[in-house]
Amino acid sequence: MFLQLLCLSILLLLPFSIPFQTLNIINLGSTLSTLDDNPYWTSPSGEFSFGFYALSEGDHYLLALWFTKIPIKTIAWTANGDLPVQKGSRVELTTIGSLSLFNSAGAEIWKAEPLDGTRAASAAMLDNGNFVLLSTDSTIKWGTFDQPTDTILPTQIVNILNRGSKLSSSISNEDHSSGKFQLSVKLDGNLVLRSIARPTEETYDPPYWASNTADTQSRLVFNESGLMYLITPLNGTHFNITTEIQVSPRDFYQRATIDSDGVFRKYTYPKSSTSPNDQTWSVKWYVPGDICTALTGNVGSGACGFNSYCVLGQDQRPNCECPPGYDYVDGNNTFMGCKQTFAPQSCEKDQLRKAFQMRELINIDWPLSDYEHFLSVDAEWCSNTCLDDCFCAVSIIRGSECWLKKIPLSNGRSDPSINGKALIKVAPPPPQLHCNEKKEKQHKMILPGSIVLAASLFLNLLLVLILVTKHKRSRRKAIPVAPSAVEGNLQCFTYKELEEATNGFEEELGKGACSVVYKGRNAQGLIAVKRLKNIPVEVDKEFKNEMRAIGRSNHKNLAKLLGFCDEGTHRLLVYELMIHGSLANLLFEMPRPSWYQRIQIAFGIARGLTYLHEECCTKIIHCDVKPQNILLDESFTARISDFGLAKLLKTDQTRTSTAVRGTRGYVAPEWFKGKAITSKVDVYSFGIVLMEIIFCKRNVELEVGREDPEILSENVYDGYVQGKLQLLIGDDEEAKNDRRFERMVMVAIWCVQDDSSLRPSMRKVLQMLEGAADVPTPPDPFSYVNSNL
């Protein structure tokens, strides 16, 4: 065994010659362009491709290497993850033997050439996933295996003698820029996982996982059977990294990737399966076991970004959460950390307790953000001490010990073994103030000044009366621009002000069963005024409560509420005017939008609903998610409207039965069964909308000559199980050729399960859409209702 390992180790050090392989030789002077119909070179088996990979932005590309024969084109290597190129870029195997990437302006932005300084004679994409530069005798002079990015493949070696002796995670599944985690073989032979101080290459110590081996010439080997081990050429020692049973390379694709969350995972995918249901890579092994608690360095943010905390999910993947009073820095990437949603603290002690309060989280800690530590105290003392200290953001109480912490908070994690609680300092919601109350207070302030003014200017009374009259006339014409105190950022309008702003509610933009929307204009520009129908006076308190909840909501995928009117029986809402109208207009009344545009809209809706369900201060169930309630701004960004209104609308104002809130075709089955209504009703409606976005067809379509309507959701599931989805999508080549097409269909099927317990949460839906979570094979969505007939 020793001799076999020694021979293998010696072979691994030699240049790799491939005289017996069938090669698709790429000659000097060959080029690929993003303008080509097929801008890539494939391996002889067709299992791997090297070339331009289109990103979700549509007109940006990576020079990349990916798996070709599986539904999801998984990237295994990139040349320019930090600098995607635009349409018109090209890659060339130059006549001097280098591989060069040129951007659309013709500038060379990346180059690969033989490591020994010689000139390559040709290139080839090999069946093992290595794109290589070859000499005249077919010796490999350079290959993508020499400079891995975040992935290694079977037969690949991570060697400290090579320049590319490390794997670096990407920022996210969508952003392939260098992330904050790295795997490398250190000079002492230890295989380690460490976090990185970006944008530099400096590493944070200690490592959060290590093989604890030591030999100055160790290298990491990933063999054809899927085993990973460290081997030492000098003495032949062999240290297994993976522990699972070997698999046949004839039957499975394999890869090992340091993912964007910092976990190093080994994946497999069956080669022989022809089932459309196989849509995910299976995780066979990973380290560390719990990334949330593994990172313990003195600097750096930890597994998640600053001011957030890490929660290990049931799938053993980390989720990053914001504490109360904080929101994500980037809603599209929750690993980027959280920021405070309230103004900075004042250090005037008599003001602190008035301006802030403490919120409790159990078994949450940021272990390395302490600046004070107290013994023999209780929770109330710890809480009040933090409340009185303007530097304190969080206090931790565990037993009789108290820690005070300041921002930025780092290494946050949720762990039952903490056996304590965190007290988060947040600003309380501002007090509610009715419009009439506000104006009454204004009048009370004006009165004393008016008396003094009248006394001092008695002789000029006539002039004063003229000025006052002129002032009142101008005030009637103007819409107030000062915000009311309902939620700090909402204006309260009188009915007459909105009547004048809409020119007597003249131009109607659209109508529904419970409202009519009119076009208007105020001092800030164009507005949309939604006039709610038949809202009785007795819901006055509930109406203002809902306005407070809506006013606190702030997300780029929500329609922005500017203000409202609650005068008498009049209930009106004032929104920004979205110049591109509703999603229904885009999908059903115009030429079909591009596949890329539809994907971005779907992602935006999912992000908005995730925010409403899980992230905003008051959890909101929309109850009427449909294309007509998805608005599109000037850049076609999806904005969800009418959220937070479900409690205000009477059941007899809907388009369905008197017991249902929602619109026919989008309504979850539990509405009809008298079951509890949860956020899963929005998940169901989103699933229907997602299908409509994918196929640009209405869910319920009445056809001439047919008594029964055509139901899209039923046709989609039938097409999925029969492998005939391509027929439903028609001539949409963009969708057919996109690796995400079938994944999105599977997510939609999960959303429309009749059994609400089977539907994922909107956060899980978003993760599956973005590729951050696996999408299991969905069951028949109608089996539950059929079993209950």
UniProtKB/TrEMBL annotation:
<dbReference type="GO" id="GO:0030246">
    <property type="term" value="F:carbohydrate binding"/>
</dbReference>
<keyword id="KW-0547">Nucleotide-binding</keyword>
<dbReference type="Pfam" id="PF01453">
    <property type="entry name" value="B_lectin"/>
</dbReference>
<dbReference type="GO" id="GO:0005524">
    <property type="term" value="F:ATP binding"/>
</dbReference>
<keyword id="KW-0732">Signal</keyword>
<dbReference type="InterPro" id="IPR036426">
    <property type="entry name" value="Bulb-type_lectin_dom_sf"/>
</dbReference>
<keyword id="KW-1133">Transmembrane helix</keyword>
<keyword id="KW-0472">Membrane</keyword>
<dbReference type="InterPro" id="IPR001480">
    <property type="entry name" value="Bulb-type_lectin_dom"/>
</dbReference>
<dbReference type="InterPro" id="IPR011009">
    <property type="entry name" value="Kinase-like_dom_sf"/>
</dbReference>
<keyword id="KW-0430">Lectin</keyword>
<feature type="transmembrane region" description="Helical">
    <location>
        <begin position="445"/>
        <end position="468"/>
    </location>
</feature>
<keyword id="KW-0325">Glycoprotein</keyword>
<protein>
    <recommendedName>
        <fullName>Receptor-like serine/threonine-protein kinase</fullName>
        <ecNumber>2.7.11.1</ecNumber>
    </recommendedName>
</protein>
<keyword id="KW-0808">Transferase</keyword>
<keyword id="KW-0418">Kinase</keyword>
<keyword id="KW-0723">Serine/threonine-protein kinase</keyword>
<dbReference type="InterPro" id="IPR008271">
    <property type="entry name" value="Ser/Thr_kinase_AS"/>
</dbReference>
<dbReference type="InterPro" id="IPR000719">
    <property type="entry name" value="Prot_kinase_dom"/>
</dbReference>
<feature type="domain" description="Protein kinase">
    <location>
        <begin position="503"/>
        <end position="783"/>
    </location>
</feature>
<dbReference type="InterPro" id="IPR024171">
    <property type="entry name" value="SRK-like_kinase"/>
</dbReference>
<feature type="domain" description="Bulb-type lectin">
    <location>
        <begin position="26"/>
        <end position="146"/>
    </location>
</feature>
<keyword id="KW-1015">Disulfide bond</keyword>
<dbReference type="GO" id="GO:0016020">
    <property type="term" value="C:membrane"/>
</dbReference>
<dbReference type="InterPro" id="IPR051343">
    <property type="entry name" value="G-type_lectin_kinases/EP1-like"/>
</dbReference>
<keyword id="KW-0245">EGF-like domain</keyword>
<feature type="signal peptide">
    <location>
        <begin position="1"/>
        <end position="19"/>
    </location>
</feature>
<dbReference type="GO" id="GO:0004674">
    <property type="term" value="F:protein serine/threonine kinase activity"/>
</dbReference>
<dbReference type="Pfam" id="PF00069">
    <property type="entry name" value="Pkinase"/>
</dbReference>
<comment type="similarity">
    <text>Belongs to the protein kinase superfamily. Ser/Thr protein kinase family.</text>
</comment>
<keyword id="KW-0067">ATP-binding</keyword>
<keyword id="KW-0812">Transmembrane</keyword>
<keyword id="KW-0675">Receptor</keyword>
